[in-house]
Design brief:
The structure is a homodimer of 195-residue chains. Chain A is mainly alpha-helical. Helices cover 69% and strands 0% of the residues of chain A. The first copy, chain A, contains nine helices and no strands. In chain A, α4 runs antiparallel to α5, α5 runs antiparallel to α7 and α8 runs antiparallel to α9. The structure holds a DNA duplex (19 and 19 nucleotides).
Chain lengths: 195, 195
DNA sequence: ACCTGAACACCGTTCAAGT
DNA sequence: ACCTGAACACCGTTCAAGT
């Protein structure tokens, strides 16, 4: 890659990151190009689709996430590991508004630029789930797809401004659905803030 | 309303219903107008926003839904009533792809044409939830907002083609998160189809 | 190699002009 | 009253022309 191209690419990513964090994943490609002082065609040349752009935006975050799964698998009890990983995912979802919906839509589409990322998250989830199931700590009538589904659904939900305030509580509810015993990690202020 | 206007209105709704059922809630307004043999401006005059159009499309369904809640409240046990209502909602979500996402986004926006509909669904849900909680059949650390959130999240999830096949099972998982005892209504083939 | 402006086919919004 | 075509400001895609 030529030096100017490389500079363009990283500059685009910087601008895109700011714009996406501020205004969500449906920011217009034209807008991103404009703010990066780059022709729209140049942006599309580096990232032919919105998903390609987002893949580049979040790949380091996802790498960190899957690595975290490895650590949790060896250092924590199976149920704690599963809940902690779930929590990390929610934090990721929160930091890039709208990206979960893209991933949920892409995870069975091999042509999507996000497909590999989805597969990595899916695999990490499934490993932690199976481990917890083997110890009787997670319900056995669900598989990796179900877990990815629940993770996606919660990530989508708390992206909505109206549900964001209750994010921790909604997380707790979904976590309860997965584990066989009620989890105590993360925001177990049960019953203290209901109507 | 003049006779020709009335006819236009109902014809638009018929066409819109077909198009939405076939191609989802993000069908273009222009397309709907075209297929209804009506100027785009005419469509926008009857339904100034997409949400207004959808409100008209689903209002009868939602009326039936809230009435169903009334029936369930008197004729069924609290837990069965809650699960059955939840199931009705999911069926509704399935029949109009994309409408749940619109409702989830609109339910705290009084300016939205869908606001009243959301409030009605919310109220019906909350009633059934409180009743179940009073009998110790639903967990008490959640409120109507949480229930509406979970219902929205599941409705959104099963709208995605990749998750639709496991809709019944995902429903079961979420229902488990709400009830204090594992529900037996609807697709309790637990453990029979996991990986 | 890489960048760019321009043309293209779309979208929803708005409004003056028609009946 | 109600309908409509047209102009508008957007969007993402594509490509021939520039350096």
């Amino acid at each position: 890659m030529r030096a100017d191209a490389k500079k363009n690419r990283s500059h685009i990513l910087t601008v895109a990151r700011e714009l996406v964090i501020g205004h969500g994943a449906d920011a217009s490609m034209r807008d991103i190009a404009r703010r990066a002082d780059v022709g729209l065609a140049t942006l599309l040349r580096h990232f032919p689709t919105r998903e390609a752009l987002f893949e580049a935006l979040v790949c380091t975050n996802l790498d960190a996430l899957t690595q975290k799964a490895d650590e949790l698998e060896t250092s924590n009890s199976p149920d704690e590991a599963l809940v902690s990983w779930f929590h990390e995912w929610v934090e990721f979802a929160r930091s890039y508004r709208g990206v979960v919906a893209m991933m949920a839509a892409a995870h069975t589409n091999p042509d999507s630029a996000l497909y590999a990322s989805c597969a990595a998250v899916h695999a990490a989830s499934a490993r932690l789930l199976v481990r917890a199931q083997a110890e009787g700590m997670a319900r056995t009538d669900m598989n990796g797809d179900d877990l990815f589904g629940l993770m996606s659904a919660l990530g989508w939900l708390i992206d909505l401004p109206s549900f964001a305030p209750r994010a921790d509580h909604l997380f707790h509810l979904i976590a309860s659905a997965i584990l066989t015993s009620r989890p105590r990690a993360f925001s177990d202020q049960a019953g203290s803030d209901r109507a």
